[in-house]
């Protein structure tokens, strides 16, 4: 798929949730989870999906390959350093894609060139040109990024970008890698590059902003005003450190303020909330209630003055409609009397395909068990059900067999937990400050991870007293951080599931390599 600078009315949305978003500590996704999110992004009509970094590990390669084979309507992109082996690996992973892009990068700031790459500027240009030319051997859609462009010298950026355009790059992405830029300065830099580079009309200018100063969305929008026609972003602003520009905020800002922006995305914005919830469910990163667009309070009005105004005319306090981002989209509610076909149909609409009757039957059985516990089952419940099943399929080392918890007024809570560890059942007992504390201590008395609990959070998946509670725990050991998720109508059981999920991840060797972990 080729983009032209003549398409001034179009803003290309490049989603990197599956690549940069996965670099959030503990946010690693399985291959199947990446495919599920990719299909949700395709329903959202995202233009480009950056599926991963194929050279990082066999698992990353397989995930990119799987996404490339599953996606038909969006371009699938693979990241590669300016190294022959990286580019070849990306080309191989994207071979089955209907539309493929290779995104290659090399650092261009003085501090990165000197301290990380230990290369002279001319060497960096040579590497970049060679990388782009090699990528063009696999696809005519090649993107180049000068890493840490926000702290790079403008004259050098002009030199290297002109060279890579001549080499065949069709998209030039200007990343604010460390979130150092401010809107006016960043937008002006984008405008200057477009004006100063002689062959700038032969490429689409893109931006990739990090949120270290809370300015990622503002910097991205400033760049669009100054001529950028692609924005790289993630669902919910997911990403390493403080995250990336949030896709939903960029898209709705541009769509709402048509008087300011001369270009528009082609997204089906009614899929935003569903996609946001799916990413939150899979990664275990909850959405804060006051998060713009997708937070639970985003369209809530408590003030009497506000409520009165909205009732008289929604436009008094609402600048966009909740329906337009998917908040009140019609959903099929399933219950204990729902049949297998209704279940299968709903799962297909959520992007979940079963590879066999056995896997369908297993998921349907889980659904029936949940239906016995709660009256109505919503899409969010189904997403949690599939995520939990996927986690158990991946991690077989430790499984919950049974648990008993005693908590009464005036007594110290105690818990007895039985686990199956590598095929053998083991039982642990512990007391704690509460039912959850006692349960997790009982689990730890069996598995002995000696890890540190960094985070424990609880969110309700849906409303009502019978709602499932979704628990996220974050464990740290030896510098490695993992997240675990669990869901159940009983919050104590959900907590135990989440802790066991994190323990299983700790027991699995880390396979993923950070794309910038090895020097060029």
Report the end-to-end length measured between terminal Cα atoms. Answer: 29 Å
The SSE string, one letter per element, is: EHEHEHEHHEHEHEHEHHHHHHEEEHEEEH
> What name is given to the CATH topology of the largest domain?
TIM Barrel
The beta-strand count equals: 14
Proportion of residues in extended strands: 15-25%
Q: What does the main sheet amount to?
A: 8 strands, parallel, barrel
Helix percentage: 25-40%
Could you explain the architecture of this structure?
The chain is an alpha/beta fold. The protein has helices at residues 31-43, 58-70, 84-93, 110-117, 121-136, 154-167, 183-196, 216-225, 247-256, 272-283, 304-312, 340-349, 357-373, 379-394, 435-447, 491-507, and strands spanning 12-15, 48-52, 75-81, 100-107, 142-147, 171-176, 204-209, 230-233, 398-406, 414-421, 424-431, 452-460, 469-477, 480-488. Helix 5 runs parallel beside helix 6. The chain is globular. The two termini are 29 Å apart. Mean pLDDT is 88; it is low at 1-7 and 301-311.
In short, what is this structure?
The protein is α/β, with parallel strands linked by helices and 520 residues long. It has helices at residues 31-43, 58-70, 84-93, 110-117, 121-136, 154-167, 183-196, 216-225, 247-256, 272-283, 304-312, 340-349, 357-373, 379-394, 435-447, 491-507; strands at 12-15, 48-52, 75-81, 100-107, 142-147, 171-176, 204-209, 230-233, 398-406, 414-421, 424-431, 452-460, 469-477, 480-488.
């Amino acid at each position: 798929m080729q983009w032209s600078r003549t398409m001034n009315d179009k803003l290309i949305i490049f989603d990197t949730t599956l690549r940069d978003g996965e670099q959030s500590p503990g946010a690693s996704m399985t291959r199947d989870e990446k495919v599920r999110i990719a299909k949700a992004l395709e329903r959202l009509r995202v233009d480009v999906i950056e599926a991963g970094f194929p050279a990082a590990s066999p698992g990353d390669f397989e995930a990119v390959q799987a996404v490339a084979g599953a996606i038909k309507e969006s371009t699938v992109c693979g990241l590669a350093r300016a190294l022959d082996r990286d580019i070849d690996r990306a080309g191989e992973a994207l071979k089955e894609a209907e539309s493929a892009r290779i995104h290659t990068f090399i650092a261009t700031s003085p501090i990165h060139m000197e301290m990380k790459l230990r290369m002279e500027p001319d060497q960096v240009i040579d590497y970049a040109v060679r990388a782009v030319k090699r990528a063009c051997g696999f696809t005519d859609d090649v993107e180049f990024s000068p890493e840490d462009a926000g702290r790079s010298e403008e004259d050098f950026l002009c030199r290297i970008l002109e060279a890579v355009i001549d080499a065949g790059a069709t998209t030039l992405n200007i990343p604010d890698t460390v979130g150092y830029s401010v809107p006016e300065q960043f937008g002006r830099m984008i405008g200057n590059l477009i004006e100063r580079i002689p062959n700038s009309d032969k490429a689409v200018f893109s931006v990739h902003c990090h949120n270290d100063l809370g300015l990622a969305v503002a910097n991205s929008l400033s760049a669009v005003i100054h001529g950028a026609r692609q924005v790289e972003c993630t669902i919910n602003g997911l990403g390493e450190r403080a995250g990336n520009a949030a896709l939903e905020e960029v898209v709705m800002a541009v769509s709402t303020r048509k008087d300011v922006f001369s270009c528009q995305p082609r997204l089906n914005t009614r899929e935003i909330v569903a996609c946001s919830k799916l990413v939150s469910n899979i990664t275990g990163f909850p959405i804060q209630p006051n998060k713009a667009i997708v937070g639970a309070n985003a369209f809530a009005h408590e003030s009497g003055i506000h409520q009165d105004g909205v009732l008289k005319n929604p436009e008094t306090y609402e600048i966009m409609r909740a329906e337009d981002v998917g908040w009140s989209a019609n959903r099929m509610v399933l219950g204990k009397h729902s049949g297998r076909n209704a279940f299968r149909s709903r799962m297909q609409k959520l992007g979940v395909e079963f590879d066999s009757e056995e896997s369908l039957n297993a998921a349907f059985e889980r659904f029936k068990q949940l239906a016995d516990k709660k009256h109505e089952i919503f899409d969010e419940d189904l997403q949690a059900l599939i995520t939990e099943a996927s986690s158990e399929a991946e991690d077989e080392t430790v499984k919950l067999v049974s648990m008993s918890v005693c908590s009464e007024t005036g007594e110290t809570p105690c818990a007895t937990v039985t686990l199956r560890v590598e095929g053998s059942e083991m039982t642990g007992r512990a007391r704690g400050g509460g039912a959850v504390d006692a349960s997790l201590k009982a689990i730890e008395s069996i598995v002995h991870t000696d890890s540190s609990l960094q985070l424990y959070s609880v969110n309700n998946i849906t409303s009502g007293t019978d709602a499932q509670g979704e628990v996220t725990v974050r464990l740290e050991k030896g510098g490695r951080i993992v997240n675990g998720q669990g869901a159940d109508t009983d919050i104590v059981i959900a907590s135990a599931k989440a802790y066991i999920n994190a323990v299983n991840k700790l027991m699995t060797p880390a396979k993923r390599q950070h794309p910038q972990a090895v020097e060029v």
